[in-house]
Amino acid sequence: MRILVLGGDGYLGWPTALHLSQRGHEVGVADSLVRRHYDDEMGVSSLVPIRQLQRRVSTWKEVSGHTIQPFIGDLTNYAFVTETLRSFEPEAVVHFAEQRSAPYSMIDRDHAVYTQVNNVVGTLNMLYAIAELDPSIHLVKLGTMGEYGSPNIEIEEGFIEITHKGRTDLLPFPKQPNSFYHLSKVHDSHNIMFACRTWGLRSTDLNQGIVYGQQTPETVLHPDLATRVDYDAVFGTVLNRFAVQAAVGYPLTVYGKGGQTRAMLEIRDTLACVELACLNPAEAGEFRVFNQFTESFSVRQLAEWVQRVAPMDVKIESIPDPRVEKEEHYYQAVTTRLPELGLKPHLLGDDFVRSLVELAVRHKDRVNVEAIRPTVNWRVTRSEVSVAGGSVGE
Amino acid sequence: MRILVLGGDGYLGWPTALHLSQRGHEVGVADSLVRRHYDDEMGVSSLVPIRQLQRRVSTWKEVSGHTIQPFIGDLTNYAFVTETLRSFEPEAVVHFAEQRSAPYSMIDRDHAVYTQVNNVVGTLNMLYAIAELDPSIHLVKLGTMGEYGSPNIEIEEGFIEITHKGRTDLLPFPKQPNSFYHLSKVHDSHNIMFACRTWGLRSTDLNQGIVYGQQTPETVLHPDLATRVDYDAVFGTVLNRFAVQAAVGYPLTVYGKGGQTRAMLEIRDTLACVELACLNPAEAGEFRVFNQFTESFSVRQLAEWVQRVAPMDVKIESIPDPRVEKEEHYYQAVTTRLPELGLKPHLLGDDFVRSLVELAVRHKDRVNVEAIRPTVNWRVTRSEVSVAGGSVGE
């Protein structure tokens, strides 16, 4: 199958491209490489060293014999989008290519506007290009479980049957996102749903949980093939962050009570889910939503897990929650569509948590400890353009 | 009360500013004047001649003795937003300042992207500026009943109590908008809801129906005070359009079966609703939604009404629906919040319909008949930048 991975230079985009290539698909990756620029802006680097995209692709060719075709450009540039689709002629487009950090979107007005414009316009361009050039292309879009927020009812997969005053309808599940980043994904979901209904496009919205882990069967074949790991307070995500904090002797930073419960999954399951979605495409005109996660954990539970299995002495510190969110809440979400298609989850275990800590220990000299503590506070609105860059990490 | 009307040069913004000024409020209007540019782009003009904003304001001063302070600039320019707020120091901001045509947003990719970026960024800027400068400012935002689409259950005012698998929550009413314009309003609603929850802002989202009429007690005081009337297929709305079509002897263009049912209200009720929302502000942190309409009609019903009361012979023509929408559907929506605050609706009657036709007859020499038939088709995706302007109205 011909699959184009947008954002194919990123944390998940790159290993997804490798996985699909290894499985025999014809793979292209498109990326603006802006994720590397965010590192420079934040003054941090991936825990594990990563190679440039061109080197990654050439090493993959040497190691596996498979070709991955790179396209360097930005989805907000419509000419780039159409030229890439015309050149590669994909059957499926896997869309990871968005600014994906909630704290980054909350730095100030500039970053909020950038995140929403970048994500919404990139996706609008892709929808128009698919409609124009080949409406049969299946758009596999990465959304997030964070679109739903934490309602007091069970979260369904995208749609919910509501009976109200004696009438019944199947309607989009109400969304309560908690950052301008999460909001941008909600905007995307509405735009894509409309394009499917109006133009007959086919799309799968993968509402993904928080991903942990770094190694996949392909990335471990050669150091050049490694994918990035973020541990900083802006781009790092919960379990990966805790492993690094343990490795450098930093107390695990639990926000408030730590009762925030989140849907999660291991990196290898992300790759499997994406391939399953591609191999079982949505119908023409269909907008479907898969909740892409395998387990749910509270933040405190994860901190205690790392503390329990890490080989070193680990402290847990509760710090004031920089986000405006419920620190304890009901959380239950359905995920049946991907298991029905054949997903066999890798559930979290002691060995995996320990291996994450060991990975962090191997690279701990690369950690900038200054970047661990959160500096972006949801309650503080910084709007001035002049302070945008310099304000972070100070 | 000090009230700043964003989009105060437009069809509803201008008469709203006059109404509030006449009622003794201190009124400022902010406008980029881009609505006049859309006229040039489309090759049409308001049915009724309108004056430039500066002249409108000076005539109003002569006629009423009241001052309306104009601010010319664009909400996507953050410096303009903050300078205007700092200068005027409003207690309430009434936000009409968005690209408000569904067909305009569907012309091509350029217009879709423009509509979403313009509307979303303008509103984001206003949220940041209010949070920065004075979080007590009440944002009265014009949304649309079109955000809801036409679900098979009764439409509530913004939120719906859902009982699901034995648990209950009050959640945002699911949205199913039918154009990139309507989608932009849904994006705004989600962004504003988040800003209220996170920053403690106060906002009222007025989900307005389709407005008809042109005259208000203030606009009729002098020809310089007239507000615009649009009759073309891109910016014209249903009842106003039909009145003009009757006046020029053009068959009333009903899309498909004409069973599309829409919530509607008279222009004077819009002004009353906006003032009621300002005088009864939302609480700090509250995001509330009022469904702002008085009656619902199907498109065919309105066409037949015009046919029945117009003094001339009127034909009705069913043309293929250029939109992708249900041509017949269930439609029932709640509106209790505004009547509770004191709204006394002006319901539609024969005399009013006849007066609309008479207004159109008086100005029928100004009508460009070529602009009446729809040229924007929801099913056609035109993405190329080069055809954007020239393709409309050809």
List the helices and strands and how they pair.
Two copies of one chain form a homodimer.
Chain A: E1 2-6, H1 13-22, E2 26-31, H2 34-42, H3 53-64, E3 68-72, H4 78-88, E4 92-95, H5 102-105, H6 109-133, E5 138-144, E6 159-164, E7 167-172, H7 180-199, E8 202-208, E9 210-212, H8 238-247, E10 252-255, E11 261-266, H9 267-279, E12 287-292, E13 295-298, H10 299-309, E14 316-319, H11 337-341, H12 350-362
Parallel strand pairs in A: 1-2, 1-4, 2-3, 4-5, 5-8, 8-12, 9-11, 10-14
Antiparallel strand pairs in A: 6-7, 11-13
Helix pairs in contact in A: 1-9, 4-6, 6-7, 8-10, 8-12
Report on this model:
The structure is a homodimer of 394-residue chains. With 394 residues, chain A is α/β, with parallel strands linked by helices. The longest helix of chain A has 25 residues, at 109-133. Chain A is globular, with a radius of gyration of 20 Å. The first copy, chain A, starts with a strand and ends in a 32-residue tail after the last helix. The model of chain A is unreliable at 385-394 (pLDDT under 50). Chain A is built from 12 helices and 14 strands. Helix content of chain A is 36%, strand content 19%. In chain A, the strands form 4 sheets. In chain A, strands 3-2-1-4-5-8-12 form a 7-stranded parallel sheet, sandwiched between helices. In chain A, strands 9-11-13 form a 3-stranded mixed sheet. In chain A, a hairpin with a 2-residue loop joins β6 (159-164) and β7. The first copy, chain A, has a single domain (2-375), classed as NAD(P)-binding Rossmann-like Domain (Rossmann fold, 3-Layer(aba) Sandwich). Chain A has helices at residues 13-22, 34-42, 53-64, 78-88, 102-105, 109-133, 180-199, 238-247, 267-279, 299-309, 337-341, 350-362; strands spanning 2-6, 26-31, 68-72, 92-95, 138-144, 159-164, 167-172, 202-208, 210-212, 252-255, 261-266, 287-292, 295-298, 316-319. In chain A, α8 packs across α12. At the A-B interface, α6, β6, β7 and α7 of A face α6, β6, β7 and α7 of B.
